[in-house]
Amino acid sequence: LPLRRRYDTFANFRPVYLPKEIAHFSPLKPEIIGDGVDFIIIRELVGGLYFGKKETGVNDAGRRYVNESLEYDEDQIARIARVAFETAQKRKGVLHNIHKSNVLKSSVLWNEVMEEVGTDFPDVEIKHILVDAAATYLCLNPGQFDVMVMENMF
Fold first, then answer.
1. What's the rounded Cα separation, in Å, for the pair 126 and 88?
2. pTM metric for this prediction
């Protein structure tokens, strides 16, 4: 983590590629793999929980506790959004924004900034998906994904 912060390596690319010819090696059924799988996961690496404030202690009831803060500012989100949109623009033109906005205020801001940055990329379709649903869709229909972007917690 210190190297990430020092060199500001904020974007992590995780390509997922499985050609149809070797789909039989996958634990997923061949009909789910279809013509193969080819997508990229882009994670933000220098904000969020990894770099938020951390506190541990013992509360008044004598129980150990931990408190960690998840913090992003709009500039951090915008720069990873730009990387994701630019990547999607070079591929199939679909960007899946993975979030947890039903629970996390940080994800609400994340979604807002993604939409704002998206106006600079009218040729890229953005789809917002809750992280829980995304995990299910990865198993049921991984071929629908092209570029996925998310914070480092997911």
1. 9
2. 0.89
